[in-house]
Design brief:
Elements: E1 7-8, E2 18-20, H1 44-48, H2 53-60, E3 66-68, H3 71-77, E4 85-87, H4 89-95, E5 100-105, H5 116-128, E6 133-138, H6 142-154, E7 157-163, H7 164-169, H8 171-179, E8 183-187, H9 193-201, H10 209-222, E9 226-228, H11 235-254, E10 261-265, H12 270-284, E11 291-297, H13 302-305, E12 307-312, E13 321-326, H14 348-355, E14 360-364, H15 366-380, H16 386-405, E15 410-415, H17 423-430, H18 441-449
Parallel strand pairs: 5-15, 6-7, 6-9, 7-8, 10-11, 10-15, 11-14
Antiparallel strand pairs: 1-4, 2-3, 4-5, 12-13
Helix pairs in contact: 3-5, 5-6, 6-8, 9-10, 11-12, 15-16
Bound molecules: pyridoxal-5'-phosphate (PLP).
Pyridoxal-5'-phosphate binds at residues 113, 115, 142, 232, 265-271, 341, 385, 387-388, 416-417.
Amino acid sequence: MEKIPYKIYLSENEIPKQWYNVRADMKNKPAPLLNPGTQKPMTLEELSGVFCTELAKQELDDTTPYIDIPQEIRDFYKMYRPAPLVRAYCLEKELDTPAKIYYKFEGNNTSGSHKLNSAIAQAYYAKEQGLKGVTTETGAGQWGTALSMACAYLGLDCKVYMVKCSYEQKPFRREVMRTYGADVTPSPSSTTEVGRKILAEHPDTTGSLGCAISEAVETAVKSEGYRYVLGSVLSQVLLHQSVIGLEAKAALDKYGVKPDIIIGCAGGGSNLGGLISPFMGEKLRGEADYEFIAVEPASCPSLTRGRYAYDFCDTGMVCPLAKMYTLGSSFIPSANHAGGLRYHGMSSVLSQLYDDGLMSARSVEQTSVFEAAEKFARIEGILPAPESSHAIRVAIDEALKCKETGEEKTILFGLTGTGYFDMVAYQRFNDGEMSDYIPTDEDLKAGLDALPKINA
Ligand SMILES: *Cc1c(COP(=O)(O)O)cnc(C)c1O
Protein backbone atom coordinates (compact mmCIF):
# COMPACT_ATOMS: atom_id res chain seq x y z
CA MET A 1 0.00 0.00 0.00
CA GLU A 2 1.19 3.45 -0.96
CA LYS A 3 2.32 5.54 2.01
CA ILE A 4 -0.36 7.96 3.04
CA PRO A 5 0.79 11.57 2.49
CA TYR A 6 0.82 14.18 5.22
CA LYS A 7 -1.96 15.99 3.44
CA ILE A 8 -4.61 14.25 1.39
CA TYR A 9 -5.91 16.78 -1.09
CA LEU A 10 -9.00 16.39 -3.20
CA SER A 11 -9.35 18.12 -6.54
CA GLU A 12 -11.76 21.00 -7.10
CA ASN A 13 -14.14 18.62 -8.88
CA GLU A 14 -14.34 16.51 -5.77
CA ILE A 15 -15.94 19.29 -3.72
CA PRO A 16 -19.35 17.76 -2.92
CA LYS A 17 -22.13 18.60 -5.37
CA GLN A 18 -24.81 17.82 -2.79
CA TRP A 19 -25.12 18.24 0.96
CA TYR A 20 -26.10 15.17 2.94
CA ASN A 21 -29.08 15.44 5.29
CA VAL A 22 -28.51 12.87 8.05
CA ARG A 23 -32.10 13.34 9.31
CA ALA A 24 -33.30 11.35 6.29
CA ASP A 25 -31.64 8.23 7.69
CA MET A 26 -32.65 8.74 11.34
CA LYS A 27 -35.37 6.40 12.57
CA ASN A 28 -36.16 8.72 15.45
CA LYS A 29 -36.37 12.16 13.85
CA PRO A 30 -35.34 15.22 15.86
CA ALA A 31 -38.32 16.78 17.60
CA PRO A 32 -39.94 19.65 15.66
CA LEU A 33 -39.41 23.31 16.52
CA LEU A 34 -42.45 24.64 18.39
CA ASN A 35 -44.17 27.99 18.24
CA PRO A 36 -43.64 29.43 21.75
CA GLY A 37 -47.15 30.92 21.75
CA THR A 38 -49.23 27.95 20.61
CA GLN A 39 -46.73 25.17 21.45
CA LYS A 40 -47.59 23.66 18.04
CA PRO A 41 -44.92 22.68 15.47
CA MET A 42 -43.69 25.69 13.50
CA THR A 43 -45.14 25.78 9.99
CA LEU A 44 -43.22 26.79 6.88
CA GLU A 45 -45.19 30.03 6.83
CA GLU A 46 -44.30 30.89 10.43
CA LEU A 47 -40.63 30.02 9.95
CA SER A 48 -40.50 32.07 6.76
CA GLY A 49 -41.24 35.20 8.78
CA VAL A 50 -37.86 34.82 10.50
CA PHE A 51 -35.73 32.80 8.06
CA CYS A 52 -35.37 32.89 4.26
CA THR A 53 -37.98 30.62 2.73
CA GLU A 54 -35.54 28.14 1.18
CA LEU A 55 -33.69 27.83 4.49
CA ALA A 56 -36.98 27.35 6.35
CA LYS A 57 -37.71 24.49 3.94
CA GLN A 58 -34.34 22.94 4.65
CA GLU A 59 -35.00 23.32 8.37
CA LEU A 60 -38.23 21.33 8.08
CA ASP A 61 -36.92 18.68 5.67
CA ASP A 62 -36.42 15.41 7.56
CA THR A 63 -36.68 13.14 4.53
CA THR A 64 -34.55 14.26 1.54
CA PRO A 65 -31.13 12.62 1.92
CA TYR A 66 -29.23 14.70 -0.66
CA ILE A 67 -29.78 18.37 -1.49
CA ASP A 68 -28.04 19.99 -4.47
CA ILE A 69 -25.48 22.67 -3.67
CA PRO A 70 -26.19 25.62 -6.01
CA GLN A 71 -23.36 26.33 -8.46
CA GLU A 72 -22.71 29.83 -7.06
CA ILE A 73 -22.10 28.36 -3.59
CA ARG A 74 -19.80 25.69 -5.04
CA ASP A 75 -17.87 28.42 -6.87
CA PHE A 76 -17.39 30.27 -3.58
CA TYR A 77 -16.35 27.02 -1.86
CA LYS A 78 -13.62 26.68 -4.52
CA MET A 79 -11.84 29.76 -3.13
CA TYR A 80 -10.97 27.91 0.11
CA ARG A 81 -12.00 24.29 -0.38
CA PRO A 82 -11.40 21.38 -0.54
CA ALA A 83 -10.05 21.70 3.00
CA PRO A 84 -7.00 19.53 3.67
CA LEU A 85 -7.19 16.26 5.55
CA VAL A 86 -3.93 15.94 7.45
CA ARG A 87 -2.27 12.82 8.79
CA ALA A 88 -0.75 13.96 12.08
CA TYR A 89 2.45 11.94 11.71
CA CYS A 90 4.42 14.41 13.87
CA LEU A 91 1.89 14.24 16.70
CA GLU A 92 1.77 10.44 16.51
CA LYS A 93 5.56 10.33 16.84
CA GLU A 94 5.58 12.79 19.74
CA LEU A 95 2.93 10.73 21.58
CA ASP A 96 4.72 7.50 20.67
CA THR A 97 1.37 5.92 19.92
CA PRO A 98 0.41 3.12 17.54
CA ALA A 99 -2.79 5.08 16.80
CA LYS A 100 -3.15 6.78 13.44
CA ILE A 101 -4.40 10.34 13.77
CA TYR A 102 -6.06 12.43 11.06
CA TYR A 103 -7.58 15.87 11.27
CA LYS A 104 -9.77 17.84 8.90
CA PHE A 105 -8.58 21.45 8.94
CA GLU A 106 -11.26 24.11 8.43
CA GLY A 107 -9.22 27.19 9.38
CA ASN A 108 -7.95 28.01 5.88
CA ASN A 109 -10.03 31.13 5.30
CA THR A 110 -10.12 34.66 6.75
CA SER A 111 -12.98 33.89 9.16
CA GLY A 112 -10.65 31.26 10.58
CA SER A 113 -13.29 28.57 10.99
CA HIS A 114 -15.76 26.19 9.38
CA LYS A 115 -18.55 28.77 9.78
CA LEU A 116 -18.03 30.14 6.27
CA ASN A 117 -19.46 26.88 4.83
CA SER A 118 -22.92 27.78 6.11
CA ALA A 119 -22.56 31.58 5.94
CA ILE A 120 -22.23 31.55 2.15
CA ALA A 121 -25.18 29.17 1.81
CA GLN A 122 -27.43 31.30 4.01
CA ALA A 123 -26.39 34.56 2.32
CA TYR A 124 -26.96 32.97 -1.10
CA TYR A 125 -30.57 32.02 -0.31
CA ALA A 126 -31.23 35.48 1.13
CA LYS A 127 -29.95 37.04 -2.09
CA GLU A 128 -32.00 34.60 -4.21
CA GLN A 129 -35.10 35.71 -2.35
CA GLY A 130 -34.35 39.32 -3.24
CA LEU A 131 -33.72 40.43 0.35
CA LYS A 132 -31.77 43.58 1.26
CA GLY A 133 -29.85 41.97 4.06
CA VAL A 134 -29.58 39.70 7.06
CA THR A 135 -29.15 40.09 10.82
CA THR A 136 -27.30 37.85 13.21
CA GLU A 137 -25.47 37.63 16.52
CA THR A 138 -21.87 36.73 17.18
CA GLY A 139 -20.12 35.74 20.38
CA ALA A 140 -16.43 35.12 19.86
CA GLY A 141 -16.76 36.67 16.39
CA GLN A 142 -16.08 33.80 13.97
CA TRP A 143 -19.66 33.56 12.77
CA GLY A 144 -20.03 37.33 12.37
CA THR A 145 -16.82 37.41 10.35
CA ALA A 146 -17.89 34.50 8.15
CA LEU A 147 -21.27 36.07 7.48
CA SER A 148 -19.70 39.49 6.74
CA MET A 149 -17.45 37.84 4.16
CA ALA A 150 -20.36 36.04 2.50
CA CYS A 151 -22.54 39.18 2.46
CA ALA A 152 -19.72 41.31 1.03
CA TYR A 153 -19.26 38.78 -1.78
CA LEU A 154 -22.96 38.79 -2.66
CA GLY A 155 -23.61 42.50 -2.02
CA LEU A 156 -25.99 42.03 0.91
CA ASP A 157 -26.32 44.24 3.97
CA CYS A 158 -25.18 42.55 7.20
CA LYS A 159 -26.16 43.65 10.74
CA VAL A 160 -24.27 41.90 13.51
CA TYR A 161 -25.12 42.04 17.23
CA MET A 162 -21.88 41.24 19.00
CA VAL A 163 -21.89 40.18 22.67
CA LYS A 164 -20.69 43.31 24.47
CA CYS A 165 -17.72 41.78 26.31
CA SER A 166 -16.38 40.36 23.02
CA TYR A 167 -17.00 43.68 21.27
CA GLU A 168 -14.77 45.33 23.84
CA GLN A 169 -12.21 42.52 24.24
CA LYS A 170 -11.84 41.67 20.56
CA PRO A 171 -11.61 45.00 18.73
CA PHE A 172 -9.70 43.37 15.87
CA ARG A 173 -12.49 40.88 15.20
CA ARG A 174 -14.90 43.79 15.10
CA GLU A 175 -12.70 45.65 12.61
CA VAL A 176 -12.43 42.60 10.34
CA MET A 177 -16.24 42.53 10.15
CA ARG A 178 -16.40 46.26 9.47
CA THR A 179 -13.78 45.89 6.76
CA TYR A 180 -16.14 43.45 5.06
CA GLY A 181 -18.88 46.07 5.35
CA ALA A 182 -20.88 44.76 8.30
CA ASP A 183 -22.68 47.03 10.74
CA VAL A 184 -21.58 45.82 14.21
CA THR A 185 -23.55 46.73 17.37
CA PRO A 186 -22.57 45.74 20.92
CA SER A 187 -25.33 43.75 22.62
CA PRO A 188 -27.39 44.41 24.63
CA SER A 189 -28.08 47.69 22.84
CA SER A 190 -30.73 50.38 22.90
CA THR A 191 -31.59 49.68 19.23
CA THR A 192 -34.13 46.97 20.15
CA GLU A 193 -36.99 46.57 22.61
CA VAL A 194 -35.51 43.42 24.10
CA GLY A 195 -32.09 45.09 24.42
CA ARG A 196 -33.60 48.11 26.20
CA LYS A 197 -35.48 45.81 28.57
CA ILE A 198 -32.37 43.80 29.44
CA LEU A 199 -30.35 47.01 29.92
CA ALA A 200 -33.02 48.41 32.23
CA GLU A 201 -32.96 45.24 34.36
CA HIS A 202 -29.19 44.64 34.24
CA PRO A 203 -27.44 47.92 33.35
CA ASP A 204 -23.95 46.45 33.90
CA THR A 205 -24.43 43.29 31.90
CA THR A 206 -21.64 42.32 29.51
CA GLY A 207 -24.14 40.50 27.33
CA SER A 208 -24.69 36.91 26.30
CA LEU A 209 -25.25 34.99 23.09
CA GLY A 210 -28.88 34.33 23.99
CA CYS A 211 -29.49 38.06 24.39
CA ALA A 212 -27.72 38.98 21.13
CA ILE A 213 -29.87 36.38 19.30
CA SER A 214 -33.03 38.03 20.64
CA GLU A 215 -31.89 41.44 19.38
CA ALA A 216 -30.95 40.11 15.94
CA VAL A 217 -34.29 38.31 15.55
CA GLU A 218 -36.25 41.39 16.62
CA THR A 219 -34.39 43.58 14.13
CA ALA A 220 -34.96 41.09 11.30
CA VAL A 221 -38.66 40.73 12.01
CA LYS A 222 -39.15 44.52 12.24
CA SER A 223 -37.09 45.51 9.19
CA GLU A 224 -38.53 45.25 5.70
CA GLY A 225 -36.42 43.01 3.44
CA TYR A 226 -34.36 41.42 6.23
CA ARG A 227 -34.23 37.92 7.68
CA TYR A 228 -32.35 36.41 10.59
CA VAL A 229 -29.55 33.88 10.09
CA LEU A 230 -27.86 31.68 12.69
CA GLY A 231 -24.41 30.07 12.52
CA SER A 232 -24.96 26.90 14.54
CA VAL A 233 -27.55 24.71 16.32
CA LEU A 234 -30.11 24.66 13.49
CA SER A 235 -30.56 21.56 11.31
CA GLN A 236 -30.00 23.62 8.12
CA VAL A 237 -26.54 24.59 9.43
CA LEU A 238 -25.62 20.95 10.06
CA LEU A 239 -26.78 20.22 6.51
CA HIS A 240 -24.42 22.85 5.04
CA GLN A 241 -21.57 21.67 7.26
CA SER A 242 -21.89 18.15 5.87
CA VAL A 243 -19.30 19.26 3.28
CA ILE A 244 -16.71 18.75 6.05
CA GLY A 245 -17.61 15.09 6.54
CA LEU A 246 -18.22 14.37 2.85
CA GLU A 247 -14.78 15.68 1.92
CA ALA A 248 -13.09 13.92 4.84
CA LYS A 249 -14.71 10.64 3.87
CA ALA A 250 -13.83 11.03 0.18
CA ALA A 251 -10.18 11.68 1.11
CA LEU A 252 -9.99 8.68 3.47
CA ASP A 253 -11.74 6.43 0.95
CA LYS A 254 -8.97 7.18 -1.57
CA TYR A 255 -6.55 5.30 0.66
CA GLY A 256 -9.02 2.74 1.96
CA VAL A 257 -8.82 4.20 5.47
CA LYS A 258 -11.76 3.69 7.83
CA PRO A 259 -11.72 5.66 11.07
CA ASP A 260 -12.56 3.84 14.32
CA ILE A 261 -13.18 6.98 16.36
CA ILE A 262 -14.47 10.36 15.13
CA ILE A 263 -14.12 13.30 17.49
CA GLY A 264 -15.37 16.88 17.34
CA CYS A 265 -15.87 19.79 19.69
CA ALA A 266 -19.47 20.69 20.35
CA GLY A 267 -20.82 24.18 20.98
CA GLY A 268 -24.14 24.25 19.15
CA GLY A 269 -23.11 21.12 17.26
CA SER A 270 -22.64 22.30 13.66
CA ASN A 271 -19.04 21.22 12.93
CA LEU A 272 -19.46 17.93 14.76
CA GLY A 273 -22.77 17.27 13.04
CA GLY A 274 -21.22 18.08 9.67
CA LEU A 275 -18.09 16.00 10.24
CA ILE A 276 -19.93 12.89 11.39
CA SER A 277 -22.91 13.11 9.00
CA PRO A 278 -21.84 10.71 6.22
CA PHE A 279 -20.27 8.30 8.71
CA MET A 280 -23.36 8.42 10.92
CA GLY A 281 -25.47 7.79 7.81
CA GLU A 282 -23.56 4.53 7.26
CA LYS A 283 -24.05 3.59 10.89
CA LEU A 284 -27.78 4.37 10.77
CA ARG A 285 -28.17 2.29 7.59
CA GLY A 286 -26.25 -0.60 9.18
CA GLU A 287 -23.40 -0.40 6.65
CA ALA A 288 -20.53 0.36 9.03
CA ASP A 289 -19.82 1.14 12.66
CA TYR A 290 -17.95 4.06 14.15
CA GLU A 291 -17.48 5.53 17.61
CA PHE A 292 -18.46 9.22 17.76
CA ILE A 293 -17.37 11.51 20.60
CA ALA A 294 -18.68 15.03 21.21
CA VAL A 295 -16.36 17.13 23.38
CA GLU A 296 -17.70 20.01 25.42
CA PRO A 297 -16.26 22.30 28.10
CA ALA A 298 -16.75 21.17 31.71
CA SER A 299 -17.97 24.72 32.39
CA CYS A 300 -20.82 24.49 29.85
CA PRO A 301 -21.76 20.78 29.84
CA SER A 302 -25.06 20.63 27.93
CA LEU A 303 -24.82 17.00 26.72
CA THR A 304 -23.13 15.49 29.76
CA ARG A 305 -25.12 17.30 32.47
CA GLY A 306 -28.03 19.01 30.75
CA ARG A 307 -31.60 17.83 30.36
CA TYR A 308 -33.27 16.64 27.13
CA ALA A 309 -36.21 19.00 26.99
CA TYR A 310 -37.88 21.76 25.02
CA ASP A 311 -36.18 25.07 25.67
CA PHE A 312 -35.84 28.57 24.29
CA CYS A 313 -32.93 29.14 21.93
CA ASP A 314 -32.45 32.71 23.23
CA THR A 315 -32.73 34.73 26.43
CA GLY A 316 -35.48 37.01 25.19
CA MET A 317 -37.68 33.97 24.41
CA VAL A 318 -38.62 35.24 20.95
CA CYS A 319 -37.22 32.25 19.00
CA PRO A 320 -39.02 28.95 18.43
CA LEU A 321 -38.67 26.28 21.12
CA ALA A 322 -36.28 23.44 20.33
CA LYS A 323 -36.05 20.05 22.00
CA MET A 324 -32.40 19.62 22.87
CA TYR A 325 -29.93 18.79 25.60
CA THR A 326 -29.86 22.08 27.44
CA LEU A 327 -28.69 23.81 30.60
CA GLY A 328 -31.56 26.29 30.34
CA SER A 329 -31.65 29.48 28.31
CA SER A 330 -30.73 31.55 31.39
CA PHE A 331 -27.47 29.61 31.93
CA ILE A 332 -24.29 31.67 31.48
CA PRO A 333 -20.90 29.95 31.90
CA SER A 334 -18.64 31.22 34.69
CA ALA A 335 -16.65 34.38 33.91
CA ASN A 336 -13.29 32.58 33.97
CA HIS A 337 -14.30 30.40 31.02
CA ALA A 338 -12.21 31.46 28.00
CA GLY A 339 -12.49 28.46 25.76
CA GLY A 340 -15.57 29.21 23.62
CA LEU A 341 -18.42 26.71 23.14
CA ARG A 342 -20.62 28.69 25.53
CA TYR A 343 -24.09 28.02 24.12
CA HIS A 344 -26.63 26.63 26.61
CA GLY A 345 -28.16 24.04 24.26
CA MET A 346 -27.20 21.58 21.54
CA SER A 347 -28.43 20.88 17.99
CA SER A 348 -31.66 18.86 18.13
CA VAL A 349 -30.23 16.41 15.55
CA LEU A 350 -27.20 15.64 17.73
CA SER A 351 -29.37 15.64 20.86
CA GLN A 352 -31.57 12.92 19.38
CA LEU A 353 -28.58 10.85 18.17
CA TYR A 354 -27.02 11.15 21.62
CA ASP A 355 -30.26 10.24 23.36
CA ASP A 356 -30.52 7.16 21.11
CA GLY A 357 -27.04 6.07 22.22
CA LEU A 358 -25.53 6.50 18.74
CA MET A 359 -22.91 8.97 19.95
CA SER A 360 -21.09 9.62 23.25
CA ALA A 361 -20.03 12.86 24.92
CA ARG A 362 -17.20 13.91 27.17
CA SER A 363 -16.49 17.12 29.03
CA VAL A 364 -12.98 18.51 29.51
CA GLU A 365 -11.50 21.29 31.66
CA GLN A 366 -10.05 24.32 29.97
CA THR A 367 -6.50 24.13 31.39
CA SER A 368 -6.14 20.61 29.96
CA VAL A 369 -7.61 21.93 26.68
CA PHE A 370 -4.96 24.66 26.48
CA GLU A 371 -2.21 22.14 27.33
CA ALA A 372 -3.35 20.11 24.34
CA ALA A 373 -3.53 23.28 22.21
CA GLU A 374 0.03 24.23 23.13
CA LYS A 375 1.35 20.74 22.35
CA PHE A 376 -0.48 20.71 19.02
CA ALA A 377 0.80 24.17 18.04
CA ARG A 378 4.39 23.20 18.82
CA ILE A 379 4.28 19.82 17.08
CA GLU A 380 1.87 20.26 14.16
CA GLY A 381 2.47 23.97 13.61
CA ILE A 382 -1.11 25.24 13.52
CA LEU A 383 -2.21 27.57 16.34
CA PRO A 384 -5.64 26.07 17.10
CA ALA A 385 -8.79 27.88 18.21
CA PRO A 386 -9.64 27.12 21.86
CA GLU A 387 -12.89 25.52 20.63
CA SER A 388 -11.04 23.16 18.28
CA SER A 389 -8.61 22.30 21.06
CA HIS A 390 -11.35 20.45 22.94
CA ALA A 391 -11.28 17.89 20.13
CA ILE A 392 -7.46 17.84 20.16
CA ARG A 393 -7.54 17.08 23.90
CA VAL A 394 -9.70 14.00 23.47
CA ALA A 395 -7.87 12.84 20.30
CA ILE A 396 -4.61 12.92 22.31
CA ASP A 397 -6.27 11.11 25.23
CA GLU A 398 -7.54 8.37 22.90
CA ALA A 399 -4.14 8.05 21.22
CA LEU A 400 -2.47 7.70 24.64
CA LYS A 401 -4.96 4.96 25.52
CA CYS A 402 -3.86 3.13 22.38
CA LYS A 403 -0.26 3.43 23.56
CA GLU A 404 -1.22 1.57 26.74
CA THR A 405 -3.27 -1.13 25.05
CA GLY A 406 -1.18 -1.41 21.89
CA GLU A 407 -4.28 -0.96 19.72
CA GLU A 408 -3.70 0.63 16.31
CA LYS A 409 -6.91 2.61 16.17
CA THR A 410 -7.55 5.22 13.50
CA ILE A 411 -8.71 8.52 14.96
CA LEU A 412 -10.26 11.35 12.95
CA PHE A 413 -10.95 14.72 14.54
CA GLY A 414 -12.22 18.08 13.36
CA LEU A 415 -9.76 20.98 13.61
CA THR A 416 -12.37 23.68 13.20
CA GLY A 417 -10.20 26.77 13.16
CA THR A 418 -7.29 28.95 14.16
CA GLY A 419 -6.87 30.90 17.39
CA TYR A 420 -5.23 34.18 16.35
CA PHE A 421 -8.02 36.24 17.90
CA ASP A 422 -7.92 34.26 21.14
CA MET A 423 -4.53 35.42 22.34
CA VAL A 424 -5.98 36.91 25.54
CA ALA A 425 -7.03 33.39 26.51
CA TYR A 426 -3.62 32.05 25.51
CA GLN A 427 -2.02 34.85 27.52
CA ARG A 428 -3.91 33.75 30.63
CA PHE A 429 -2.72 30.20 30.01
CA ASN A 430 0.89 31.27 29.39
CA ASP A 431 0.90 33.40 32.55
CA GLY A 432 -0.43 30.49 34.61
CA GLU A 433 -3.57 32.45 35.39
CA MET A 434 -6.07 30.11 33.79
CA SER A 435 -8.29 28.20 36.17
CA ASP A 436 -11.11 25.70 35.85
CA TYR A 437 -14.57 26.13 37.18
CA ILE A 438 -16.95 23.23 37.03
CA PRO A 439 -20.48 24.30 37.89
CA THR A 440 -22.00 22.54 40.91
CA ASP A 441 -25.40 20.83 40.68
CA GLU A 442 -26.67 23.82 42.62
CA ASP A 443 -25.29 26.20 39.93
CA LEU A 444 -27.07 24.24 37.21
CA LYS A 445 -30.33 23.94 39.12
CA ALA A 446 -31.55 27.49 38.45
CA GLY A 447 -31.28 27.13 34.67
CA LEU A 448 -32.87 23.67 34.63
CA ASP A 449 -35.70 24.69 36.98
CA ALA A 450 -36.53 27.58 34.66
CA LEU A 451 -37.07 25.34 31.61
CA PRO A 452 -40.46 26.06 30.01
CA LYS A 453 -43.27 23.63 30.81
CA ILE A 454 -44.40 22.10 27.53
CA ASN A 455 -47.44 19.86 27.20
CA ALA A 456 -46.46 18.43 23.82
C1 LIG B 1 -18.20 28.40 16.36
C2 LIG B 1 -17.04 27.51 16.47
C3 LIG B 1 -17.14 26.23 17.06
C4 LIG B 1 -18.39 25.73 17.71
O1 LIG B 1 -19.56 25.71 16.98
P1 LIG B 1 -20.29 24.39 16.51
O2 LIG B 1 -21.55 24.86 15.94
O3 LIG B 1 -20.48 23.52 17.74
O4 LIG B 1 -19.41 23.75 15.54
C5 LIG B 1 -16.03 25.43 17.07
N1 LIG B 1 -14.86 25.84 16.57
C6 LIG B 1 -14.71 27.05 16.01
C7 LIG B 1 -13.37 27.44 15.47
C8 LIG B 1 -15.80 27.92 15.92
O5 LIG B 1 -15.65 29.12 15.37
